[in-house]
Amino acid sequence: MYHHALFYPAKPHDLPTRPVLDLPVVDASTSDTIEALLGGTARSVYFLNAHCANVCATDRAYAAALARADAVLPDGIGVELAARSMGSGLTENLNGTDFTPALLQEAARRGLSVFLFGAAPGTAERAADALQARIPDLIVAGTRDGYDGGACEVSAVHAINASGADILLVAMGVPKQELWIDRNLPQLRPRLVLGVGALLDFLAGNVKRAPAPVRKLRMEWAWRLAMEPRRLAKRYLVGNTTFLKRTVRRAMTGAGPDAVTKRLVDFGLASCLAMLLAPVLGAIALAVRFDSRGPVLFRQTRVGRDGKPFTILKFRTMHPDAEARLAELKAQSDRDGLCFKSRNDPRVTRVGRLLRRTSLDELPQIFNVLRGDMSLVGPRPALPSEVAAYPRGARERLAARPGITGLWQVSGRAEIGFDRMIDMDLAYVRSRSLLLDLMLLVLTVQAVRSGRGAY
């Protein structure tokens, strides 16, 4: 198995990965992953979900096949939670049911062909029809079922190779499909081979996918359980519990007790705050909405732990054209260094001034803490442009999750210059502890009451 590390060495196609239960799982967007798979040297591609991880823990042959794969793609909320438990989330959920058609869409644009292999007789043909209806330019080089058509491996490999297909989709279920690919990959001629599970059944209409709102909530597993309770009860009810227990145990072993305690404190306090402050959050949202046009929440890309970007949430305190007007206001900055701050910034709304003065605009970051992007206490979340201009040594502050509060926030906020802020963040990173976090949380209450540096 792989050793636990921040990043695994890149495969030949240079896809970045993150460790999830000792497997290097691809940490990239759909578009970047498709480009790498179609344009690189990767051949075997598997998907990892909670059920796969459970099978991997007990089936050594399957675990070995995953370890030999060129790419393991994250599939579902379970893998995302496991990644977050180890310190940081994944860029995107690359579940096979959505990812594979997107890959085939680009493959069709490039004139590449696909072979569908697996599932019950007739399913691959119906899946091919559905794909060609969705992607008219897609070339389906052939189909073959996984029953009689898969009984003789030599015959199946010969038929696939004879078709001249560039891409092979193998749909036999976990772990059978991965073991089949692992055994036969040296003889297969397609440049890319993916184990796609129930994808052909979904495409053929044998299994109905969850409605879009359910998928958006990342609850597709609950929908499938409701559709097939007898067959899937053990997988989802017992299996998900087993997976979560293994994830927690692995996080506690790999992250160390201090990191686990900090995350538990963050999640517990943020959960309580979210529930207690729900009426306040609602009232502020209404005030922002009625004060000026534009969205209630302000979203902006910031740089998190280990340099990973995330979207920070705040209540909007400026007019919608604030970003466009920034250049003309640079000379009015009240702070030395890279970070712009102006006490009389004309872009700030009436409600926005009150929210900034009381720091209430920061409250939506509670949800960043729940998601694992931020901590309650940590360095100030920096802009990508600031990180790009960091002086030598300043990147050390990225070793910790950014925080809603921290040394900078309780020491004067906007009254503190950029260089001094960096020094404070580095001091926190080098001496962080649960006791220090608790002290800073107490000091934050006083800092908010005084309003010093908040504008």
From TrEMBL:
GO biological process: one example: polysaccharide biosynthetic process
Protein family: Belongs to the bacterial sugar transferase family.
PANTHER family the record matches: COLANIC BIOSYNTHESIS UDP-GLUCOSE LIPID CARRIER TRANSFERASE, SLL5057 PROTEIN
Protein's UniProt keywords contain Cell membrane: no
GO molecular function, one term: phosphotransferase activity, for other substituted phosphate groups
Full protein name: Bacterial sugar transferase domain-containing protein
Keywords: Exopolysaccharide synthesis
Ranges of residues in domain Bacterial sugar transferase: 262-448
Annotated NCBIfam families: wecG_tagA_cpsF
Tree of life domain: Bacteria
Ligase listed as a keyword: no
Originating species: Salipiger pallidus
